[in-house]
Write a structure and sequence with these properties.
Blueprint lengths: L5 H12 L5 H8 L3 H14 L17 E9 L4 H8 L5 E6 L6 E7 L2 H12 L4 E8 L5
Antiparallel strand pairs: 1-3, 1-4, 2-3
Helix pairs in contact: 2-3
Length: about 140
């Protein structure tokens, strides 16, 4: 995989702002040709630098419960566990980290019953050794 140059970074930044933006719009904003953006995007996708596109959903005023879960993983099973965790729609973000915890997950649940269910399901995944969860009470 070749290193990203400034134009690659600018294309990625534009896609982070609006992953559905037409290539012509990105090209115009970056003042390069449509063919240049298409070729760069094709290369970024083929190299695995861009893994896919996602949807960001505006949260309603009724967010339910939000929590952060730190997860300890057994041995070298992190990749398999990440694939399994990505199947949970309640996980809004998943991060690898260093230190005592291997993963940090942001959980959104409708209510306590749903929250309890998702915690039990995550903790039952083979390869998860330990977890610690904190409910987020307010944002500063």
């Amino acid at each position: 995989m070749q290193p990203l140059d400034q134009l690659d970074r600018r294309i990625i930044a534009a896609l982070r702002g609006d992953a559905r933006a037409p290539i012509a719009k990105i090209a115009g904003a970056l003042q390069v040709s449509r063919a240049t953006v298409q070729a760069r995007l094709d290369r970024l996708l083929a190299s695995g630098m861009i893994l896919g596109f996602t949807v960001r959903v505006q949260e309603t005023g009724d967010e339910g419960l939000r929590a952060i879960m730190m997860i300890e993983v057994a041995g070298r099973s992190t990749s398999a566990i990440i694939r399994r965790l990505r199947s949970f729609p309640e996980l809004r973000a998943l991060h690898t980290t260093n230190g005592a915890w291997d993963l940090v997950a942001e959980i959104h649940a409708e209510d306590l019953r749903s929250f309890d269910r998702i915690l039990r399901e995550i903790r039952s995944i083979d390869g998860i050794l330990n977890s610690e969860t904190s409910i987020l009470l307010s944002s500063a």
